[in-house]
Design a protein that fits this description.
The structure is a single chain. The chain has helices at 10-18, 21-45, 52-55, 82-87, 97-121; strands at 57-59, 63-65, 68-70, 73-75. It is mainly alpha-helical. The chain has one domain. The strands form two sheets. The protein has a two-stranded antiparallel sheet with strand order 1-4. A two-stranded antiparallel ribbon has the order 2-3. A hairpin with a 2-residue loop joins β2 and β3 (68-70). The radius of gyration is 16 Å and the shape is elongated.
């Protein structure tokens, strides 16, 4: 799983923490929107011989582990073959469409997160 680390937005994140429940609501909205943005980029990169794979990319609801909130973007179980495409096999070259989509979306996602946090904080 790839992680997106934001630099330079520590002040915004600190302000979110101070807001308590309202901050958690903003955090949830921001992370889901960011996940959707990553999903869009992955769908654009996905092989489309039948279009099935593009329809099977999902975004989870907000999850928290050890206080860290996140969403995951993943192919559904119906698209189990996505791993074969992403990483390749002994008989097939890798086509890392998920990695490309993630890399292509990073700057847009960072901008979206900053914009949405500021909007949520009324700045």
């Amino acid at each position: 799983m790839a992680n997106l680390k934001l630099e330079g937005v520590e002040n915004l994140l600190t302000e979110l923490e101070k807001l308590g429940k309202e901050g958690e609501k903003i955090e949830r909205i921001v992370l889901v929107k960011a996940g959707e943005k990553v999903k869009e980029a992955i769908v654009k990169e996905a092989p489309h011989r039948t279009g099935n794979l593009r329809d099977k990319i999902r975004v989870t609801k907000l999850k928290k582990v050890d206080g860290a909130a996140f969403v995951e973007v993943y192919p559904s179980k119906d698209a189990f073959y996505a791993a074969f495409l992403e990483f390749g096999t002994t008989k097939m070259k890798a086509d890392p469409f998920m990695s490309r989509g993630y890399e292509n979306s990073k700057e847009d996602v960072e901008d979206l997160i900053v914009e949405e946090i500021r909007k949520g904080l009324g700045l």
